[in-house]
Amino acid sequence: MNHLWLTAKLDIVESLRARWFLIYSIVFGGIVALLFAFGLTESRVLGFIGLSRLLVTYIQLAMAILPIFVLITTVRSVAGDREAGVFEYLLSLPVGLAAWFWGKIIGRYITIFLPVFVAMLGAALWGMIQGIEVPWDMFIYYTGLLAAMGWCFLGIGMLISTLARSTDVAQGSAFMVWLTMLLFLDLILLGVMIQGRIAPELAVTLALANPLQVFRTAALAMFDPQLIVLGPSAYVILDLFGATGFKFYALVYPVLVGTLAAGIGFLTFRKSDLP
Amino acid sequence: MIRFQGVTKLFKRHRVLDGIDLDIALGERIALIGSNGAGKTTLIRCLLGEYTFGGEVSIEGQSPRADRTSVLGKIGFVPQLPPPLKMPVGQLVDFAAALCGTDPKRMHDIAARLGLDMQEILSRPFNRLSGGMKQKLLIAVALGRDAKVLVMDEPAANLDPDARHIFFQLLAERLETTTMLISSHRLDEVAPLVNRVIEMDMGKVVLDDRVADDTGLASLYNVHLTLTRPDAAIAKALGAWSFADRRDGVEWHGQVPGPDRLRFLGMISRYVGLVARIEMAELPENLVLQ
In angstroms, what separates the C-alpha of A257 from chain B's closest C-alpha? Predict the structure, then answer.
């Protein structure tokens, strides 16, 4: 256990000094600052005003950029470290492979989740100072969603990093995974359904197997509990899970996907050449 | 101590190691030489449990892959190319010491003996150090613990003559208790350090021979050199060996570590047309230790 935390700490220290972390923090901190600067808390959409409106916009933007950011930075730094000889040296020290792999994931998870969370928390604190009511239930759920999404894509990123032997291949693969998930968002599936090629249930199942779609639908459900904007798909989702059930599914499913991907990544890592 | 039995490694059907059989006993100092692509690094990575392979590798009966932490706890490794770590030097030393179950002060002490001012560089990122400083620090990390096996890839390549001498002294202090595997492209770089030479080519051991050398690793030689005339190029080269100009760039005096004699003479051979006289005399052991 000691080796795991040592590795996690090491990864955090390395990440905090990396350029990607600086850009990553600026992007998420910048989004919140810009949303405040453009007076988003005073605008209204679907009845949302104040900090709720800001959080809704923030989560939509986070959904668009968090997955690709996490995927690319993870595969670039992990595969890059391997290519540069960092693995060769650090793995010559007596650290267990499980402690190394999971320690690296924990360290990386803290560094990718912290800027996203701190930006959101900063918004909430600033709102309180400004006398704007903070929707804490929404804040907590969105925090959970972002945490789940970060873990999911980190796990996928670690899997890609262990399978790909070079930074270029890892980066290309990560981009393809993200693009595939993007293509399977509901609009594409609805298009296919309209053409009558697949059963509606299959289309909805495919959509719900896509972590990006789950994240997006859960974010929508916070301000549209009946999921009216999804049309007929909403019936399938709500019949299957119920409103509360889907909120729970949206938190658990991405975590399971991330854990499964990371687990497969670890088994591959353990059985293959390390550097 | 270390046993390689039929070790084979393939990269996409390309056989990089081809049935390597070796037995290495405690206290042996081995030069692992060969050209690029001969299989030296791959063999080292198999020994460190970093590569999967066919056959068997064992250190005191344990597998470096299955008994990883136990085996690597006995091995100190110095890579040829320092890793581009961004963490501060202090953090790297603390991390390595914690994993190896040793006191970071031991690593600090060895780094100080090699000429590193640890207090000054503790908070500096590792990748911002000079090549020589990185090398010294990695040597300090490898030697600052109870390693029974030292695996070093061109370990003295970036060291200045003084640091090389101290490095040889550090190795000399461990002769009885440590097995050393030193990899290099060139035998002259490592020959004085070793008592056995293993040459690899195309993934096979093509030479396995003993080296006779009565000079100790910690020995030091007084060298007097007389040139036929002053010359800027040899003056610069001798300056790099910390030689002092005793008379108008013609008479030079300095000290050369015993294990570096071949390397020194190799340097001098480039200017052999300018050399009128050369004297080398080993210093008594009590003087060297002072």
Answer: 28
